[in-house]
Amino acid sequence: MSTSRTRLSLDDALNAAIQLHQAGRLQDAENVYRQVLAVQPRHPEALHLMGLCAHQKGDHATAAKLIRTALEIQPAHPAAHNSLGAVQLALGQAGAALEALQRAVELSPAYAEAWTNRGIALGELRRSDEALASYDEALRLGYDNPLLHFNRARLLQLLGRLEEALGAYGRTLAQVPGYREAWHNLGVLQEKLGRLTEAQTSYERAVQLEPEAPYTRGHLLFARLRRCDWKGLEALGSAILRAVDAGRAAAEPFPLLAIDSTPRQQLQCARAYAADKFPAGMALPPIPAPAAVPQRLKLAYLSADFHDHATAHLIAEVFERHDRSRFELIALSFGPPRDDPWRRRLVAAFDRFEEVGDLTDREIALRARELGVHVAIDLKGYTQDCRTGIFACRAAPIQVNYLGYPGTLGVPWMDYLIADPVVVPVQDREHYAEKIAALPDCYQPNDSTKPIAGAVPSRAELGLPEEGFVFCCFNNNYKITPDVFALWMRLLARVPGSVLWLLAAPPEAMEALRREAVRLGIAAERLVFAERVPLAEHLARHARADLFLDTFHYNAHTTASDALWAGLPVLTRLGHSFSGRVATSLLTAADLPELIAADAAEYESLAVALAGDPARLAGLRQRLAAQRGRCALFDCGRYTGKLEAAFEAMWRRHMAGEAPAHLDIV
């Protein structure tokens, strides 16, 4: 066969393979690419496109090898550089991907797809402004592609340019109405904007498109809880738990805390989520053991909430009380810069306070290593604005899950969880991936310097009746589930003239609660909603309530300790998971065990009994006032000492070459 005829045959074969490839027949296309390579092993386009096939089939390592070989033969191949960048993005190698994509646009400045992929790489590296400029260049070149609009929307969302992000998602869905992930992300954005009804509709659309899609049902569940839209809630929750039991990623871990899930199911959910989000291989090289015992342990607290936030309200005094002769305190803040009194107080409490929000997870982990951190403490867990990937990279020899998230992270690289014998009983430790560091009193710190405003508004000023018993619950409304609300309505029926005082919620949620009250035979006006006010004022108005009623599956946490600090008795029911046992832990540490009910029936009976016995209730208030200055719950000095003992015990094991183990601090 002549050379020209061979080239013609190869060209025909390659064109046929490309047609098969474009038709989605990947294996058939790959077979033809192999035939071309059998004749010409160094055919750059066949190597490139066969690599692209491997990428599309999920074999990214093989894809990278093939495309690199093609580029060794033909370095000035912009499409191959673009493909290599896409493969490296799939492998989690954003830095390497950026190099490849930069080369693609240098070789072909009008290559809009490469500009788009370059934007994705820059976004992964948290170089957000550059990423947006790259996307905008693709738009300028006339690239009207749903992937471009989708990724640009995600970036605008990250940058807080939420209305612009809405428009970009709209353009995505106008082109691909069945784009399930775009509907999901749109729901997340709408939820952040407070458009809960629209968010719920978007999640429902995503579930219709792909019922078993990861996480969307969990978001739909949580949106319904936030709206107090309980129609079909039990069926949805049951479906999610069945999927969790089967090992599927039906929900992110947080929504499970608000429904009747077990510690085992919460562990299953966390493991599935972590396996998806934090693949093996993220960890940096091992940290060498120190040559000698350090004079001071370096503790790094990592959070987005070093400002006027519930976590800061709890822990600020702990930071101030840490023994500086034994500990050096570092804050790594990855939330937006703030300037409020709480932020200023927290900055003053640390030896070093660094803003790291613009860094990648890997860069923050490297910074912690550079600072010589011994114990890295995650104050976020799986909550809003978390950066769990920092810990997946292994930021410090010891890593601790503490305070922000009441449950397990389900990962092998979080060494310890700070808990207590109530929130995590010994028999439940098997359902936590971390080893338990059990403090002797309560896992939750409390600030014994929190001021309570001197002026207490009248009942009338607060919208409450002048006479009658006031039940209250200042928990977020997503913690209110149909079972506990029905019980509360029975209390109102059994205690004439009583009202239920709740924290203001989204308008549709308040209206839904009023409708449900009426359906259960209770006048809507017997529900009163308290607007959000500064903490000192909020604490003061507790004086106008008679009894705080806790929610069941996700207890009052900060809200319970706030009530107790303000002198208001809290009634709870002992739950079976961390999030449902916190108020029991708080009441135990406050020496008020008689306010812990074993089940819903006892909870209801006790609430009615207290409402009908003013002397008994007054006695509880007097005990609270007398014990506030000396009970374990509000003894921050004692608490800090026990927490420090836990950190030191962790470090001793590490220095001895021993693996993390359960610790019972005495």
Automatic annotation (TrEMBL):
It comes from the Bacteria. Pathway: Protein modification; protein glycosylation. Pfam families: Glyco_transf_41, TPR_16, TPR_2, TPR_8. Belongs to the glycosyltransferase 41 family. O-GlcNAc transferase subfamily. PANTHER family: PTHR44998, UDP-N-ACETYLGLUCOSAMINE--PEPTIDE N-ACETYLGLUCOSAMINYLTRANSFERASE 110 KDA SUBUNIT. InterPro entries: OGT/SEC/SPY_C (IPR029489), TPR-like_helical_dom_sf (IPR011990), TPR_2 (IPR013105), TPR_rpt (IPR019734). Its EC number is 2.4.1.255. Keywords: Glycosyltransferase, Repeat, TPR repeat, Transferase. SMART domains: TPR (SM00028). The lineage of its organism: Bacteria, Pseudomonadati, Pseudomonadota, Betaproteobacteria, Rhodocyclales. PROSITE patterns: TPR, TPR_REGION. TPR repeats lie at residues 44-77, 78-111, 112-145, 180-213. Residues 294-444, 455-642 form the O-GlcNAc transferase C-terminal domain. GO terms for molecular function: protein O-acetylglucosaminyltransferase activity. This is protein O-GlcNAc transferase.
